[in-house]
Amino acid sequence: MCGMGSLPVLGRAALHHWEEPCISGARGSGAVFFSGCGLRCAYCQNAALSRNRTGRAVSVGRLAAVFRELEEQGAHNINLVTSTHFAPQILAALARRRPGIPVVYNTGGYETLDTLRRLQGAVDVYLPDLKYVDPELSARCSEAPDYVEYNQAALIEMCRQTGPPRYDADGLLIRGTLVRHLVLPGMAVQSMRALNWIAENLPAGTPVSLMAQYTPQPETAGDPLLRRPVTRREYELVAAHLRALGFTEGYVQRLSSRGEAFIPPFDEAGVNP
């Protein structure tokens, strides 16, 4: 499904400043963007990687060196972006040299428990999406009717592994699980249901990042809902529900954070020696 082979394929490995403040910090997150994906989200902003599979294949040894180089550049963490289909190779790279900074597993949340249990001890911070709570919606938008089943079990396991969030003196997340939810156009009620699930099923104090960055893509032009941005009214309704549920840890992204300008160039920066 991911369209990849046995070697990791990287589209970019560089300091990244557009994650949540507790991930990016002042110097940036050491983001390693992997090509390929197990989901088919119609609105994916990283389609150059997820669908077109651009990038360069590297050895396990080179991947370990990429981690080291990002750490030497001052990265606050090693941020593995959409890397599930390369989990065995990542574990092998980490076994060669464990970074002295946290390892962040940045995922769409479509994970099996077997994979997560293999990652236990190697990952310090989980940064998963909770995209949907409706299987029909996940089938329509991401071609994954079983997303909800796997996602909910995965989030519970991630929180079990990491325990409560821990921050350093600068406010950077060094251990824990931060759950992201992207508000989609016309689906404010679905977003409220997603927040309800988090409040009812994950430990109190789990930080949540409510995201407004939805940007219509060419693949969504024919969809009556997905072809338009989220309105201010829709987003404010979901943000108000977040506050009403009593969430105190996390972020509410600004509507100004959406647009093509926030998509990094997947130019293989930092990939080659």
Model description:
This protein has 273 residues and is an alpha/beta fold. The chain has one domain: TIM Barrel. The chain is built from nine helices and eleven strands. The chain has helices at 21-24, 47-50, 60-72, 87-96, 113-119, 135-142, 147-162, 188-201, 232-244; strands at residues 9-16, 29-34, 56-57, 78-81, 103-107, 125-128, 166-167, 173-177, 179-182, 208-211, 250-252. The strands form two sheets. The chain has an eight-stranded mixed beta sheet. Strand 7 and strand 8 form a beta hairpin. The longest helix has 16 residues, at 147-162. It is globular. The model has no long low-confidence stretch (mean pLDDT 96).
Summary keywords:
273 residues; alpha/beta; TIM Barrel; 8-stranded mixed beta sheet; 3-stranded parallel beta sheet; 9 helices; globular
Short summary of the structure?
This protein has nine helices and eleven strands. The protein is an alpha/beta fold and 273 residues long. The mean pLDDT is 96.
Helix content: 25-40%
Poorly predicted residue ranges: none
**Rg from C-alpha positions?**
18 Å
- Counting helices, strands and paired strands, the structural category is alpha/beta
| Annotated CATH homologous superfamily | Aldolase class I
**CATH fold group:** TIM Barrel
CATH architecture: Alpha-Beta Barrel
CATH class: Alpha Beta
Number of strands: 11
Main sheet: strand order:
3-1-2-4-5-6-8-7
Alpha-carbon distance between the termini?
A: 29 Å
Note the total helix count.
9
Strand content: 15-25%
Query: In sequence order, what are the helices and strands, one letter per element?
Result: EHEHEHEHEHEHHEEEHEHE
Number of domains: 1
Biggest β-sheet strands, sense, barrel: 8 strands, mixed
* Mean of residue pLDDT values: 96
The geometry reads as globular
